[in-house]
């Protein structure tokens, strides 16, 4: 499906764990384009959009961390009121649940990263509405 | 048919006995009685139990070779592993028609231990319990609230039957639900409780939070605290907090349960009923007997058990005999407070747990790694920290939560109590050289 892949790392909610992750990536020459950390109960999950996803995944794994690659949809929208609503409303009408989402703006373009159970269906639905779903190459070009 | 309670010899001051002649029997007469019963027991197992037949044959022993009490040392030991290996009926001497009761110890995936009782065994267990209760001052006027878990464990039922023998009013309350426990105490004026040390302390805190003053509002006078070891300090805390007299008791399901040994009013050691159990203290490494007064492993041989007699059972409990005679007049020797175990076993909330059981459950789940840590805290909080296998993380937190819940439920099925489980990332638990330290015990019991 050529979805955008995030690198997800399972870490304890303690000082030093994030530093460990960033050191590994820095040493591997990987550039982080976007990062989020969610702490849920005692679990910490770090999600990263890296410029070299595979390399990031392998280096972290080889350092003993619990990592996985997570598929997400990257949707590009105009940077103005109502743009995000168009995306979300479209999914809601088709009863597609947004599990996790995050958004950012760079150079007058807004990108929202969406996790959903059935990404293939979600992508079809969005594309039918004329919304732009970015490929991994496109998202990293920004 | 339950016979009515015996009329007890009432001495206004001085000890009360359930069975004065046996409890104050001379050591000489006791010795003869023990030898006779030991011989009967050895003959019985030699006749009916192939496990013992084999062992005796290996040693070239026959029942006739038991001519003095010292000859007990020639007999083979019986261990916990032997009970598991002969599960379910390998050590039983009677057919089902003569078996009355079954109790088991914890453990479902690994084999548990099954203990069988004939009618006489059930009655004897109750008799010994009755001796203990009367020794502590209980009478048929007392109301006993039994707060131990009824079920496969021996604790609750053996106490129950013993208390009924004495003629007490027995309330089969079971554990937990402090509101209900309090209500029972208020409505029925319970005068004694049977409880674990951790729940006793917890309940005391509960009473305080309710503004209940046990001395003013309740009729409690005694607490029989057992199922797990606890310090003198904890005994005093419970006595203070609940306004009761706490009597230490020792028991194990392999020896009928509670009532094997019990404190008298002098509370300096627990009298072990030597007409029912032949007592030895041995070096846990070599199995050799130790001089009286020295600490070692308690080994017990049943003298009266019919359905499932046990020869030289290794309890793994470390204790010593109190050498001096007791002012209460009972000639059955006393054991010191249990000082520890000679194996890894833990007792949490009154339940025996081996770290190996935890390990077995975790190994059955491919998503978890090999490293785990059991942390015991507070009064009886148990947390099992488990490392996630490196390849098992899929980015979804709900899956981690599901996995934790799955581990809790499998552990609960195995160890029969519910721990907290914390999944931690691989490599986050301490790694030790040599034997892994699997347990951190911060409890203050």
In brief, what are we looking at here?
Chain A has 142 residues and is of the alpha+beta class. Chain A has helices spanning 17-27, 53-62, 83-93, 119-128, 136-140; strands at residues 4-12, 32-40, 43-50, 66-78, 100-106, 109-115, 132-134.
What order do the helices and strands come in, and which of them pair?
The complex is a heterodimer of chains A (142) and B (445).
Chain A: E1 4-12, H1 17-27, E2 32-40, E3 43-50, H2 53-62, E4 66-78, H3 83-93, E5 100-106, E6 109-115, H4 119-128, E7 132-134, H5 136-140
Antiparallel strand pairs in A: 1-3, 1-4, 2-3, 4-6, 4-7, 5-6
Chain B: H1 20-23, H2 27-48, H3 50-59, H4 80-85, E1 99-104, E2 114-118, H5 119-135, E3 143-146, H6 154-166, E4 169-171, H7 178-188, E5 192-195, H8 197-209, H9 214-217, E6 222-225, H10 232-242, E7 245-252, E8 257-263, E9 270-272, E10 277-282, E11 296-302, E12 313-319, E13 321-322, E14 334-335, E15 340-341, E16 346-348, E17 351-353, H11 355-363, E18 368-377, E19 381-388, H12 397-415, E20 420-424, E21 439-441
Parallel strand pairs in B: 3-4, 3-5, 5-6, 6-7, 18-21, 19-20
Antiparallel strand pairs in B: 1-2, 7-8, 8-9, 9-14, 10-11, 11-12, 12-15, 13-14, 16-17, 18-19
Helix pairs in contact in B: 2-3, 5-6, 8-10, 11-12
Detailed description of the structure:
- The complex is a heterodimer of chains A (142) and B (445).
- Chain A folds into 2 domains: 4-70, VC0802-like (2-Layer Sandwich), CATH 3.30.2130.10; 72-140, ACT domain (Alpha-Beta Plaits, 2-Layer Sandwich).
- Chain A contains 5 helices and 7 strands.
- The mean pLDDT of chain A is 89.
- Chain A is α+β, with helices and mostly antiparallel strands.
- Chain A is 33% helix and 39% strand.
- In chain A, strands 1, 2, 3, 4, 5, 6 and 7 form a 7-stranded antiparallel β-sheet that branches.
- Chain B is of the alpha/beta class and 445 residues long.
- Chains A and B meet through strand 1, strand 3 and strand 4 of A and helix 12 and strand 20 of B.
